Automatic annotation (TrEMBL):
Source organism: Polyangium mundeleinium
Transmembrane segment boundaries: 16-38, 50-72
Pfam families tied to this protein: DUF485
Keywords: Membrane, Transmembrane, Transmembrane helix
InterPro entries: DUF485, Inner_membrane_assoc
Name of this chain's protein: DUF485 domain-containing protein
Protein backbone atom coordinates (compact mmCIF):
# COMPACT_ATOMS: atom_id res chain seq x y z
CA UNK A 1 0.00 0.00 0.00
CA UNK A 2 1.37 3.37 -0.97
CA UNK A 3 1.62 5.49 2.15
CA UNK A 4 1.42 8.73 0.17
CA UNK A 5 -1.90 7.68 -1.41
CA UNK A 6 -3.26 6.58 1.94
CA UNK A 7 -2.35 9.92 3.50
CA UNK A 8 -3.98 11.78 0.60
CA UNK A 9 -7.24 9.82 1.02
CA UNK A 10 -7.19 10.32 4.79
CA UNK A 11 -6.58 14.05 4.32
CA UNK A 12 -9.56 14.30 1.96
CA UNK A 13 -11.74 12.48 4.50
CA UNK A 14 -10.56 14.81 7.27
CA UNK A 15 -11.27 17.89 5.15
CA UNK A 16 -14.87 16.98 4.36
CA UNK A 17 -15.48 15.82 7.93
CA UNK A 18 -14.19 19.12 9.30
CA UNK A 19 -16.26 21.21 6.89
CA UNK A 20 -19.47 19.30 7.61
CA UNK A 21 -18.81 19.28 11.36
CA UNK A 22 -18.21 23.03 11.32
CA UNK A 23 -21.42 23.59 9.34
CA UNK A 24 -23.39 21.43 11.78
CA UNK A 25 -21.91 23.17 14.80
CA UNK A 26 -22.57 26.59 13.25
CA UNK A 27 -26.25 25.74 12.71
CA UNK A 28 -26.64 24.16 16.15
CA UNK A 29 -24.85 26.80 18.20
CA UNK A 30 -26.39 29.56 16.12
CA UNK A 31 -29.78 28.21 17.09
CA UNK A 32 -28.74 27.88 20.74
CA UNK A 33 -27.50 31.48 20.75
CA UNK A 34 -30.82 32.58 19.29
CA UNK A 35 -32.62 30.68 22.03
CA UNK A 36 -30.45 32.41 24.63
CA UNK A 37 -30.65 35.95 23.30
CA UNK A 38 -33.41 36.09 20.75
CA UNK A 39 -36.41 34.64 22.51
CA UNK A 40 -38.79 37.39 21.34
CA UNK A 41 -37.70 36.78 17.75
CA UNK A 42 -38.12 33.02 18.03
CA UNK A 43 -41.51 33.47 19.65
CA UNK A 44 -42.97 35.11 16.56
CA UNK A 45 -45.78 33.04 15.12
CA UNK A 46 -45.42 32.20 11.44
CA UNK A 47 -48.78 30.47 11.23
CA UNK A 48 -51.28 29.27 13.76
CA UNK A 49 -49.35 26.94 16.09
CA UNK A 50 -45.92 27.31 14.39
CA UNK A 51 -43.36 29.72 15.78
CA UNK A 52 -40.09 30.73 14.17
CA UNK A 53 -38.25 28.91 16.97
CA UNK A 54 -40.02 25.64 16.23
CA UNK A 55 -39.27 25.97 12.53
CA UNK A 56 -35.58 26.78 13.07
CA UNK A 57 -35.20 24.00 15.64
CA UNK A 58 -36.65 21.53 13.16
CA UNK A 59 -34.38 22.85 10.42
CA UNK A 60 -31.32 22.28 12.63
CA UNK A 61 -32.31 18.64 12.98
CA UNK A 62 -33.01 18.26 9.26
CA UNK A 63 -29.72 19.99 8.42
CA UNK A 64 -27.79 17.49 10.53
CA UNK A 65 -29.45 14.66 8.59
CA UNK A 66 -28.61 16.36 5.29
CA UNK A 67 -24.97 16.85 6.31
CA UNK A 68 -24.77 13.22 7.40
CA UNK A 69 -26.23 12.16 4.06
CA UNK A 70 -23.70 14.31 2.21
CA UNK A 71 -20.87 12.65 4.11
CA UNK A 72 -22.19 9.14 3.56
CA UNK A 73 -22.73 9.82 -0.14
CA UNK A 74 -19.23 11.26 -0.49
CA UNK A 75 -17.69 8.36 1.44
CA UNK A 76 -19.49 5.78 -0.70
CA UNK A 77 -18.54 7.46 -3.99
CA UNK A 78 -14.97 8.54 -3.21
CA UNK A 79 -13.47 7.35 0.06
CA UNK A 80 -14.53 3.70 -0.09
CA UNK A 81 -13.48 3.42 -3.74
CA UNK A 82 -10.00 4.77 -3.00
CA UNK A 83 -9.58 2.60 0.10
CA UNK A 84 -10.63 -0.53 -1.82
CA UNK A 85 -8.23 0.38 -4.63
CA UNK A 86 -5.41 0.88 -2.13
CA UNK A 87 -6.28 -2.38 -0.37
CA UNK A 88 -6.26 -4.14 -3.74
CA UNK A 89 -2.81 -2.76 -4.44
CA UNK A 90 -1.68 -3.98 -1.06
CA UNK A 91 -3.02 -7.50 -1.61
CA UNK A 92 -1.48 -7.75 -5.04
CA UNK A 93 1.82 -6.47 -3.71
CA UNK A 94 1.83 -3.32 -5.83
CA UNK A 95 2.55 0.18 -4.59
CA UNK A 96 4.71 -0.50 -1.57
Amino acid sequence: MNEKDLRRVAAARDRIARVLTAATMFAYFGFILLVAWGKPLLGNLLTNGLSLGMLLGSLVIVLSWVFTGIYVSWANRHYDVHVERLAGKSKSGGGT
